[in-house]
Amino acid sequence: MPFYPLLLRLSSALVPLTIALTTYLYFYPFFHNCYFPIPPESTHHVFDNCTFDDHVLANHYANRQAAPFRLLALGDPQLEGDTSLPSAPKYHFPGLNQLGQWLRSGRPFLVLDGLQSGLHDVVNDILRGLEYTRKQIDLFGNDYYLAHQYRALHWHTAPTHVTVLGDLLGSQWIGDEEFESRSIRFWHRVFKGASLVPKGLLKEYAAPTFVRAEWQTGDDESKYYREKTVEVLGASPGWANRIINVVGNHDIGYAGDIDENRISRFEKQFGPVNGDIHFTLPLQQCNLSHPPLFPPVLRLIVLNTMNLDSPAFEAKLQQRTYKFINSLIDTSSPVGDDTTATILLTHIPLHKEQGTCVDSPLFTYFPHDEGGGIKEQNMISKDMSKQAILHGVFGKNLDPFAPAGGMGRAGIILTGHDHEGCDVYHYGFKNNTEWYASKWDGKEAKEARADGDVPGIREVTVRSMMGEFGGHAGLISAWFDLEKGKWEIEVGGCDLGVQHWWWAVHVTDFIAVIIWIVTAITWFVEVKMDPQFLQKMKKWIKEKIEEEQERMGGRVRGMMDMKMDMGGYNPGVRRKPHGSL
């Protein structure tokens, strides 16, 4: 029976299926319409009359429709490892090892028990081995599922910056060797081709320095900007391939168990737990009719909120975080200065009332004999959210007599931790002490944003990029609106889908390749080759089988003759039976 026609029909049916599935998977950002938010047309002319010093800046601002700052935000990859694997099978089979003793005992019931115990050991170890292997394959596939998201989105959307918002790894309890192993997977498998932010770019403590900037004509006595860690936005294209890593609880723990070793090994592999950098727009190289008083600045802050709340296991490490926040306040632009916007990257979200997001406020603590520190928390405490973040970093204040009327600094907060994700607006009313958080698209938040006398700020908790949560990614665009004299920040998103789709496509591709190979071999044998050659081959095989059968038959007859010669059984001789007379 020829198999080639059947295999040809099967492989022909698989061709369009595999092409369609693979194309969809590898170009999913295109099919899902995943793009960074685009600035309005009114802002496209800002860089029309610019003369840049080098081609790098010219290329960065060449596309007028693209925002000059595009941040790809990924949340909680949580790379697992040995702690998630079941115990490896040992294949000792103690029941079978004792079976020999029971056989020699001559007691059937022991032999039966031995067989039952031995089979039980074999089945258990085989099942354990299968589960162990399945989990190893699952970890391997999960790494490449996450890598596929990063690679596809990075190629399709062309971000200028990339951040991972904490929980890079799956457990803070792992040893140094396993930590290094997962770090290698992070850099060489999941984010292959990406690199760590060079040391010194994200500085933890910055002293305020005032430098005169003669970037426009006229009187320059009042034209100053703070030169901390400053870069011209777009001057270094290397940022597109750098990962700005934020520390999470599964990386170093919560306040109750963070120690110096965990922070040191994290910073060695992934960068500082605290730091900030200022990106300036090169408007001094543009011919503008009404340039802003100060060069627009976009401030990027990485903040460790893991030990912001108390009690902490090591007070020294907590003071380090407090000192960094104070340095942020000291080096911040004046409140009400809309030419500067702040993007805060941190892991634990700010406080919200129950029901606002999926996670609710939660604090648990270690026993007193273990230090009594924070063991787990879903959000920053209410007081710390207000004092350290809203009041401190962003300068928001509900006192109507506060500077700039309490409106504070512009910006956005990007967090992780809550795997389901959330998008809220924090706001408060003057002459009040309470801050509220409502869904960004909700009625209350819209009314608060419409009121120009209500301080507030947006917080986006980026949904996890893990397969269980659909492989989500945040797409954040920022641009300076020259007419309004302030920064605009918009947020989009993109979802790959659960990891089962990734597996299904690649398994289908693998099966299709095998079938195509078998089809090609079958075509070569059944169609391409000379049919007479096949007949000769069959005849030769048949002759060899007959020769072997004849040879085996001759050996059997020879053995029978030998037995007869040695006095063995001879059917021609009748023997007298033994018996008494």
UniProtKB/TrEMBL annotation:
Organism encoding this protein: Venturia inaequalis (Apple scab fungus)
Protein name as catalogued: Calcineurin-like phosphoesterase domain-containing protein
Record's GO cellular component terms: endoplasmic reticulum; membrane
Transmembrane segments: 7-27, 501-525
InterPro entries: Metallo-depent_PP-like, PGAP5/Cdc1/Ted1
The entry's keywords: Membrane, Transmembrane, Transmembrane helix
SUPFAM superfamilies: Metallo-dependent phosphatases
Any one of the GO BP annotations: GPI anchor biosynthetic process
Transmembrane is among the record's keywords: yes
